[in-house]
């Protein structure tokens, strides 16, 4: 019986064919396109169907068997496993939860409630409740209430050099909703591929896939996204984190910025700038302006309160190129009826009264001391590692010597009650990068940083001794 499998590989991609095939099958299993127990074609058959060498398929199958996605039964071929590996199929933007118990949690995206300015929020929210009129409790405009869009336009210009008008701002439920709306609007324009950075945010990659777009990984180096590689993909839209690349921490170099903006002009393409932690730049002089400043007609700027305040508010914003705005409004009005008005009014009040600026100054200095403490702890306890990229945001990326067994180090750290993610978790099947660790310090007390890094250092020394 010649079982058929409908997968595609791209010979011009920088991603090796084995990795492409592996990812495609993994996605089909996780998305339940391939059901548990489904039979796959033989490696010989699939190689022939796809015009690939058989060794490419054999290697992909072997890797998927090792990862627990497929089973090979002698005499009855290769099947999708009946029990998927833990964590498979998480169609979430978040790191899988629940996580193992650990004293120190260095994962990124962990909310730090103690940084939430409760008193200020309470004051603004109470003021709103006392003064809100009929308009404030009726359905809001889908793009957001005027008060907040006005405040945001001023704030984004002042703090991030974004060039926009209140009428081009859309308030969203965090970047997650912004991304979903953008993916819909691209598809309305006949764009079905969205280039993403690799390494990058695996949750976002799956999220994009679930919107019906094809995420196309493009490698990142010390200068940020490799624009030449982007151009080779043929994609017309790209999602980037130019100020502080997620997860490597590098900043898109001035030359690459220009190249990327040129690419957008020449391909009539779109750039989404995910400025998730742009407010937390510790060296004020070095802070790069938003990429959007270079071409407000082609760059969609995205911001969020998830790092600035807390993710639970589910509040974000897009500064949208004027010619894309009407489509985004149409797409939005078909999906929901706008964001919670009272939260929007309270946040506008927080901004208007200067309370947000004051809060930002306070937490920025808190995060700066954590970033410095982490750098000092790495120098002391993990001297073979090198911190990569810019001192900004709520995480650092430590590069480890080539050949370090990253997975064993992560396990060793967990045995010492430190939960940390290895760089491989942020790869999508492209060539394995240099081993590394993503060290989130946003929710750690200052005193915990040295203890956590010391535990990782001890795990590293144990690994080195063999
Ligand atoms: C790379 C990146 N972009 C954006 C966000 C924010 O997403 P949201 O606004 O939906 O919470 C996060 C998470 O905090 C992130 O890690």
UniProtKB/TrEMBL annotation:
PROSITE patterns registered for this protein in UniProt: HTH_GNTR
Q: Which Gene3D superfamilies match?
A: Type I PLP-dependent aspartate aminotransferase-like (Major domain), Winged helix-like DNA-binding domain superfamily/Winged helix DNA-binding domain
Give the molecular function GO annotations. transaminase activity
- Please indicate if the UniProt record lists Transcription regulation as a keyword: yes
Q: Which CDD domains match?
A: AAT_like (cd00609), WHTH_GntR (cd07377)
SMART domains for the chain: HTH_GNTR
Q: Which residues form the HTH gntR-type domain?
A: 15-83
Keywords from the named record: Aminotransferase, DNA-binding, Pyridoxal phosphate, Transcription, Transcription regulation, Transferase
Q: Which domain of life is it from?
A: Bacteria
The UniProt family comment states: In the C-terminal section; belongs to the class-I pyridoxal-phosphate-dependent aminotransferase family.
Q: What is this protein called?
A: PLP-dependent aminotransferase family protein
**Native source species:** Streptomyces lavendulocolor
The upper taxonomy is: Bacteria, Bacillati, Actinomycetota, Actinomycetes, Kitasatosporales
């Amino acid at each position: 019986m010649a079982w058929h499998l409908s997968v595609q590989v791209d010979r011009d991609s920088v991603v090796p064919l084995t990795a492409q095939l592996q990812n495609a099958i993994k996605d089909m299993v996780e998305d339940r396109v391939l059901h548990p127990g489904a039979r796959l074609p033989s490696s010989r058959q699939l190689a022939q169907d796809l015009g690939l060498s058989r060794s490419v398929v054999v290697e992909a199958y072997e890797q998927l068997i090792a990862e627990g996605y497929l089973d090979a039964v002698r005499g009855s071929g290769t099947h999708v496993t009946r029990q998927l590996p833990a964590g498979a199929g998480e169609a979430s933007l978040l790191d899988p939860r629940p996580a193992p118990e650990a004293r120190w949690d260095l994962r990124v995206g962990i909310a730090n409630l103690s940084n939430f300015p409760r008193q200020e929020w309470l004051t603004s929210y109470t003021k709103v409740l006392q003064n809100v009129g009929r308009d404030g409790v009726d359905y809001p405009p889908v793009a957001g209430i005027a008060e907040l869009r006005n405040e945001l336009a001023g704030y984004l210009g002042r703090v991030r050099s974004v060039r926009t008008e209140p009428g081009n701002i859309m308030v969203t439920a965090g970047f997650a909703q912004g991304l979903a709306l953008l993916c819909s609007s691209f598809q309305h324009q006949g764009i079905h591929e969205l280039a993403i950075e690799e390494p990058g945010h695996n949750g976002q990659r799956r999220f994009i896939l679930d919107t019906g777009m094809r995420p196309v990984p493009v490698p990142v180096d010390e200068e940020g996204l490799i624009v030449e590689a982007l151009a080779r993909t043929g994609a017309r839209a790209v999602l980037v984190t130019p100020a502080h690349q997620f997860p490597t921490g590098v900043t898109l170099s001035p030359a690459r910025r220009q190249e990327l903006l040129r690419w957008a002009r020449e391909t009539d393409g779109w750039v989404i700038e995910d400025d998730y932690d742009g407010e937390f730049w510790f060296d004020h002089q070095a802070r790069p302006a938003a990429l959007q400043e270079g071409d407000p007609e082609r760059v969609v700027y995205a911001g969020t309160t998830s790092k600035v305040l807390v993710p639970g508010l589910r509040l974000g914003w897009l500064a949208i190129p004027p010619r894309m705005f009407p489509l985004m409004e149409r797409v939005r009005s078909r999906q929901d009826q706008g964001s919670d008005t009272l939260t929007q009014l309270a946040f506008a009040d927080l901004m208007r009264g200067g309370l947000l600026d004051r809060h930002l100054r306070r937490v920025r200095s808190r995060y700066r001391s954590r970033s410095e403490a982490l750098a000092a702890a790495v120098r002391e306890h993990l001297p073979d590692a090198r911190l990569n990229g810019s001192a900004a945001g709520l995480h650092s990326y430590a590069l480890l010597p080539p050949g370090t067994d990253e997975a064993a180090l992560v396990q060793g750290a967990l045995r010492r009650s430190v939960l940390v993610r290895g760089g491989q978790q942020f790869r999508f099947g492209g060539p394995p990068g240099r081993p590394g660790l993503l060290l989130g310090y946003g929710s750690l007390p200052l005193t915990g940083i040295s203890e956590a890094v010391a535990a990782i250092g001890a795990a590293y020394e144990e690994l080195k001794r063999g």
